[in-house]
Design goal:
mainly alpha; 4 helices; 59% helix
């Protein structure tokens, strides 16, 4: 196993302090672009047919609303052990 960070050890690799982060610059550019063109986007959006409005709305919402993912238990044995762990945790909490 690694020793980890040692005192007096110089930092090696990575981005140097003060170096511009290109990803941040690009994100800031697109943020500013979206903000600066809101009114034009709204006008174009209102000219769309209802079907196209729905498509644009759903596509744009992907950038704002987090995606929900489901958890699926494949094995009943794992389900039982998870339930047992919850029971043990609940009984431990009640004892305190």
């Amino acid at each position: 196993m690694g020793k980890g960070f040692e005192n007096g050890h110089m930092k090696m690799g990575g981005r140097e302090k003060g170096t511009r982060n290109k990803n941040t610059e690009i994100k800031n550019f697109f943020r500013d672009f979206v903000i600066d063109n809101q009114e034009e986007f709204k006008k174009a959006f209102l000219k769309l047919k209802d079907k196209d409005k729905c498509a644009v709305y759903l596509k744009a919402s992907e950038f704002v609303v987090p995606k929900v993912s489901s958890i699926k238990f494949e094995d009943a044995k794992n389900t039982n052990s998870a339930i047992e762990l919850l029971k043990v945790a609940a009984s431990y909490k009640q004892k305190k």
